[in-house]
Design brief:
By secondary structure, this protein is mainly α. 54% of the residues lie in helices and 10% in strands. It has one domain (18-104): Winged helix-like DNA-binding domain superfamily/Winged helix DNA-binding domain (Arc Repressor Mutant, subunit A), CATH 1.10.10.10. The protein is built from five helices and two strands, in the order ααααββα.
Length: 115
């Protein structure tokens, strides 16, 4: 049995805090489903504001989970793509998403808040 070490907890907690922010899970999920342009994210994530979407994309870029590429065209295009770490996070979250869907079908189960 592995022990829980204090030196690994802050890293794990930081990851949970990042992905647990409102809309972050949805942004990561949209990226995993192929969203590349800002408008694609906005159309895939019902209810997110432009300001909050922009903020979440910047946070995920800063965390090294999404790459932002500026395509010098007319008009300029900005593309977002999961990094290998971002794709690994999507892969790691899939079992949790499946668990959540199964759990939501149980009577008396507490609903987890939407990402």
């Amino acid at each position: 049995m592995d022990t829980i070490r204090d030196d690994t907890c802050p890293s794990f907690e930081g990851t949970l805090e990042l992905i647990g922010r409102r809309w972050t899970g949805s942004v990561v999920q949209a990226a995993g489903q192929g969203a590349r342009r800002f408008g694609e994210y906005r159309s895939m994530i019902e209810g997110i504001s432009d300001r909050l979407l922009s903020q979440r994309l910047k946070e995920l870029e800063s965390a090294g989970l999404i790459d932002r590429t500026v395509v010098p065209s007319t008009p300029v295009q900005i593309l977002y793509q999961l990094t290998p770490d971002g794709q690994a996070l999507v892969d790691a979250l899939m079992p949790l998403a499946q668990w959540s869907r199964r759990r939501s079908g149980h009577s008396g189960a507490t609903q987890l808040p939407a990402a």
